[in-house]
Structure formats: C-alpha cells, structure tokens
Design a protein that fits this description.
Layout: H1 4-16, E1 26-31, H2 45-62, H3 65-71, E2 75-85, E3 94-104, E4 109-120, E5 123-138, E6 141-142, H4 145-152, H5 164-174
Antiparallel strand pairs: 1-3, 2-5, 3-4, 4-5, 5-6
C-alpha cells in the first residue's frame, strides 16, 4: 500500500464516522500532494486506483462488512478495472473519491467510482470515472456472491445495473492474452 498514512487515517476516521448501508455511496476527501504527482505535474495514473482501493475499504468498514468479512477469513481481490480519465488532478487540488455498489452476479461485485475535483474555476468537475469487478476469496476459493451478501449482512434487493455488467464483461473478454 503506497498510501500507508492515508490508509491509517482512513481506518481511524471510518471507525468513528457515521455508519453507512452497503448500498450507500461512500465519499472520501483528499488533496493531491507532491508525492502523488508524475512527471507531467498532475496526479499519476496509479494513484487513482490506490485512492479507489481506500474508498472501497472505507465503505466496508463504515457498514460493518469489513469486520464480518475478516472474521470469515475472506479477502477481496480485484478482477478488472475500466477507467476513463477526463481531467487532470493538479498539485494541491482538493478532490473526492466515491464508491458505490452497482450490482453483482454469481461471481463478481461491480463497483462504480468517481474522482471529483472540488472547487475548481468551473465548480466541481469529474476527473475520472471507473467501474471495477471484485470478488472475495477464502482458503477454499471464490465465495459465491449470494453467500457473500449474507456474510456482509445485506438482505435487500440486488440493484439493477442495466446492461453495464454485460458490457463490462464483454470488454474484459476482449482483453484475454
């Protein structure tokens, strides 16, 4: 984890923050520090994914799922990520990272992220949008999502993501070696 101090702060603040439901949108605020920059003097591409990692963990900590997942001996793994960069995040700019569960199938949970530049000259602007596919593993292998939802304590309806999941899967299928 290349954002260790931000991770520690996020874990502390998430434990004392207001609880969230699993289907609520998580939102974290940050500032782009010089250590986040690349040679073009804007936030480096890899940092976007690191901040999205933090936002997914924060969402699970706030709704209590993280403790239940760890108690069950599970750990999350990312299957794929599709990102679109729209605007650069410049040095010292404030930005927010959101995380929201879109839906799931029998193998994958689909999560949407946005990185939003705060208070720019044009107001708030979306810097990047991303959809990730993630799953959870145990020592026995992949945990089916219906079982995972029980472990996470979610008993509500599965959200409808339209045809986004099928399109994401089709894109992933084209990326085989």
């Amino acid at each position: 984890m290349n954002l260790i101090f931000r991770l520690i702060w996020m874990l502390i603040s998430a434990r004392f923050g207001s609880p969230r439901a699993l289907m609520d949108e998580g939102r974290l605020a940050y500032r782009c520090w010089p250590t986040d920059l690349d040679m073009n003097i804007h936030m480096t591409n890899s940092r976007y994914h690191s901040f999205m990692d933090l936002s997914r963990v924060e969402l699970m900590v706030r709704n209590g799922a993280w403790a239940r997942i760890r108690k069950a001996g599970l750990y999350p793994v990312l299957g794929s990520s599709s990102i679109r960069f729209r605007r650069p995040i410049r040095p010292l700019q404030k930005f927010e990272v959101t995380a929201r569960v879109l839906s799931w199938d029998d193998r994958w949970i689909y999560i949407a992220h946005k990185l939003i530049i705060k208070g720019g000259p044009k107001g708030d602007e979306v810097a990047a949008v991303c959809v990730v596919k993630t799953t959870f593993l145990s020592e026995q292998g992949r945990v089916p999502t219906d079982q995972l939802m029980v472990i996470m304590g979610y008993d509500g309806p599965k959200p409808d993501a339209g045809d986004l999941m099928a399109k994401k899967d089709a894109l992933d299928a084209m990326l085989t070696a």
